[in-house]
Amino acid sequence: MIRNELNSEERAVEELVRDSFWNVYRPGCLEHYVLHVMRSSPGFYKELNFVMYLDDVLIGQVVFHKAELKLKDGSTKEIATFGPIAIHNDYKRKKYGMILLAFALNKAKEQGIKALLMEGNYDFYSKLGFERAKDKNILYYGSTVDFLLYKELEEGYLKDCDQANYMTPKVYYVDEKEAEDFDLSFKPMEKKKLDSQIFK
Ligand SMILES: CC(C)(COP(=O)(O)OP(=O)(O)OC[C@H]1O[C@@H](n2cnc3c(N)ncnc32)[C@H](O)[C@@H]1OP(=O)(O)O)[C@@H](O)C(=O)NCCC(=O)NCCS
Predict the structure, then answer these.
(1) How far apart are CA 20 and CA 99, in angstroms?
(2) Is the pLDDT of residue 200 over 80?
(3) Over pLDDT 90: what percentage of the chain?
(4) Whose CA is nearest to atom 15 of ligand 1?
(5) What residues does the N-acetyltransferase domain cover (predicted)?
């Protein structure tokens, strides 16, 4: 079952996000705090805040936020981004992530979102039609990168975006000290340094 998050389950969803992201990209993680802060951001799509249940178990979540692309002529194009998206550790790699995101993308289209940009793993997101932004010559803080991905929900919306620049909405950049303080209210978990992490 996929439905909108209820206020009463916010904490449970933050626990899910924390467990799912823990030690994946850095020792510990920040994403549960990002989600906590994002819910009260003006650019947050309340109607695109989804949770996924299998029987009575909360196994997934995804949220969306407004974003923009700065075009070469100085004008801006409205787009959206999404994340955190998390699947419960016991249910990863069973296609629930794909099912949840495919559902959410349809809803995003119904909400009038015309294109999405996000930093992510091509191996997963390409399954749902995401492509590398560098193939459209869309830049990330002025540079060409492999991890910036896009998907048009309205065909052709990102045409004429040559050298457009994407910057992650500020809401994603939480204060790490604040995130650490917030984390203290959760059950203790060991932070580990792993070679696979991208933030050292
Ligand atoms: C990333 C995530 C949402 C994917 O959801 P999932 O249910 O585990 O993935 P799915 O089973 O739907 O994956 C479908 C396909 O995408 C690809 N894929 C998924 N996760 C992948 C990963 N971590 N690395 C490489 N390919 C991946 C695989 O091809 C997979 O098919 P396969 O398992 O048959 O090889 C989930 O693993 C998760 O919560 N990870 C931790 C948090 C996170 O990284 N969130 C995304 C941040 S951008």
Answers:
(1) 17
(2) no
(3) 98
(4) 124
(5) 1-154
> Which pLDDT score is estimated for 199?
87
What's the gap between Cα 144 and its chain centre? 20
93 lines ligand 1 (CB under 6 A): yes
Integer angstrom CA distances of residue 105 from 116, 129, 172: 9, 11, 20
- Structural domains of the chain, ranges and CATH numbers in brackets: 2-183 (3.40.630.30)
Residue 20 has pLDDT above 90, yes or no: yes
Distance CA 111, CA 166 (A): 21
SS3 letters across 127-145: HHCCEEHHHHCCEECCECC
**148: Cβ below 6 Å to ligand 1?**
no
